[in-house]
């Protein structure tokens, strides 16, 4: 009589099973890490207060050092400003930080900011969040929350 049993997987394929399972787990984990999770406070997904201060400080320092884009920062005490902006961002991200500064309209009113200046800072923040290893989902959620302040700061 003819044998109708399906062929059994080769031992080689069987031995690759743990490898395939590990690859799948890595894929799932990466997927989770890059997606914003509404059940975890955003500031935690951004890496906590320390990381927020790091990427904020680097972004502000880079823009301030630019010969053209940095014009608004002349005479500004950068360590104080960095602390204040980091606390603001931490608070926007539902963190426990206390922000004691003015609202965005008042604090930028005298700077005569253009749209492209705002966009440059946002792009620099994006790059520094990437450098700090902030997952894409958390990064985009923070930028989404900051976006409405553009119309409060930009005057032309
Ligand atoms: C996402 C965009 C921005 C955010 C979240 C932000 C946030 C802040 C915060 C929280 C303060 C501190 C206010 C206070 O302590 O009373 C501040 C002040 C300041 N910001 Fe921004 N800012 C943004 C865009 C910009 C841009 C585009 C520039 C210039 C290129 C700028 C330049 C300044 C300067 C110079 C001050 C100090 C003003 C002063 O003390 O007279 N900011 N910003």
UniProtKB/TrEMBL annotation:
Binding of heme, residues: 108
Annotated organism of origin: Aquabacterium soli
GO molecular-function terms, A-Z: heme binding; metal ion binding; oxygen binding
Keywords linked to the UniProt accession: Heme, Iron, Metal-binding, Transport
Keyword Heme belongs to the record: yes
Name listed for the protein in its UniProt record: Group 1 truncated hemoglobin
Key word Transport present: yes
Pfam annotation, one family: Bac_globin
């Amino acid at each position: 009589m003819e044998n109708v049993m399906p062929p059994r997987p080769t031992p080689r394929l069987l031995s690759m099973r743990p490898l395939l399972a590990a690859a799948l787990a890595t894929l799932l984990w990466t997927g989770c890490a890059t997606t914003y999770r509404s059940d975890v406070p955003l500031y935690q997904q951004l890496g906590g207060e320390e990381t927020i201060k790091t990427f904020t400080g680097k972004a502000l320092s880079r823009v301030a050092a630019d010969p053209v884009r940095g014009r608004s920062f002349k005479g500004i005490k950068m360590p104080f400003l960095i602390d204040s902006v980091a606390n603001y961002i931490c608070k926007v991200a539902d963190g426990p930080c206390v922000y004691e500064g003015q609202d965005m309209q008042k604090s930028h009113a005298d700077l005569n900011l253009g749209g492209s200046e705002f966009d440059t800072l946002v792009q620099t923040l994006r790059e520094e969040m990437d450098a700090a290893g902030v997952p894409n989902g958390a990064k985009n959620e923070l930028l989404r929350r900051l976006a409405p302040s553009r119309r409060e700061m930009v005057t032309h």
